[in-house]
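Bench notes, afternoon.
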Amino acid sequence: MNRNSYDGDVTTWSPQGRLFQVDYAMEAVKQGPATIGLRSNTHAVLVSLTRSSSELASHLQKFRRIDEHVGISYSGLMSDARLLGKYMRTESLNFRWTLSEPIPVGYLVDNVGSKLQKPTQHYGSRPYGVGILVAGYDREGPHIFQTCPSANYYECKAMAIGARSQSARTYLEKHFEKFPDSTPDQLIRHGLRALRDCLRNEAELSTLNCSVAVVGKDTPFTIYANDNVKPYLDSIDEEGTGALAATAAPEPAAAEGEAAEGEAAAAEEAMEA
């Protein structure tokens, strides 16, 4: 039997032990715009690409504020993300109403994992086709969580999901040791540099196609979009220009050495003549 014999519903296992509809949902996450999360000892930052369906349409907002201390970014089906975001907001409000304190970020993500698991157990339903990055701050400090359509979730030091996100993960793996002691502005710049690697050829980051969110100690979940992102984009552009100039300019010592060698060679030729 071919693969199509096992992907008719989410409760049918393949001989290899896979649920193909869950695999298809994971592929939907990989097709969405890239989004990145990273954290320091005091703050968590989300950075995301945004898309528009045409030049006549506005860019879709990729962040959702769940509570003062937690928010999400996503890649995949926006409708599924909207539904899960509403569920998370309701859970957070119920917890605050009952116990008069903010919901712990890990507890909230655990509830989301249980909700993601239910559609994979019943005939006639489908998995949620969205991956979520959760950024929050509670009594244990800042957090970055990743959730998957398979209902798995992980706490991360940094993570990137979405289209061409492997390039961003490579950047994060090279620099993650710098993140714990970074300021919020430095985290944002790291996130934008990683996000820049997710762009298509000849595309550039702009105030229209990227946005930033920050949450942390004494900082409620705050979204920066449009012109509010421009100072951070200008700073990484200046860094890139400075690096190119430093590479192109010869070192003074090297230049002097080359000049001295040239004079010595000329003197030797004159003596031989």
